[in-house]
């Protein structure tokens, strides 16, 4: 009977910690209990050959939103870049920007959404 109390206390403490923690990081996905602030204005620089602009966004550190400035991503032919976005799913979830395969003509539009996925006039 004496051993059960410490085990029960440990289980309760772990459960409370899991519920009370507003930020969880899992496979590059960030969860936060509060919505992000409005995006900051950032001037988009002039196009740079061989690169894609990744716009600034709110990320999370130490259970709070922190602004991440925009930056250049080296272009990857056959892929399109999806910007970082927040969505509400049991709190707020950040899906970081990522490259997705399926852009044969390199115009930034996925083949499944492109009206002309093999545009011969591209470049």
Task: Please describe what this structure looks like.
Strand 4 (57-61) and strand 5 (64-68) form a beta hairpin. It is built from one helix and ten strands, in the order αββββββββββ. The protein has one helix at residues 4-20; strands at residues 24-26, 29-32, 51-54, 57-61, 64-68, 71-74, 78-82, 85-88, 92-95, 98-103. It is elongated, with a radius of gyration of 21 Å. With 123 residues, it is mainly β. Helix content is 14%, strand content 36%. The strands form four sheets. The protein has a four-stranded antiparallel β-sheet with strand order 1-2-9-8, with no helix packed on it. A two-stranded antiparallel sheet has the order 3-6. A two-stranded antiparallel ribbon has the order 4-5. It has one domain (23-113).
Short note summarizing the structure:
The chain has one helix and ten strands. By secondary structure, the protein is mainly beta. The strands form four sheets. A four-stranded antiparallel beta sheet has the order 1-2-9-8, with no helix packed on it. Strands 3-6 form a two-stranded antiparallel sheet. A two-stranded antiparallel sheet has the order 4-5.
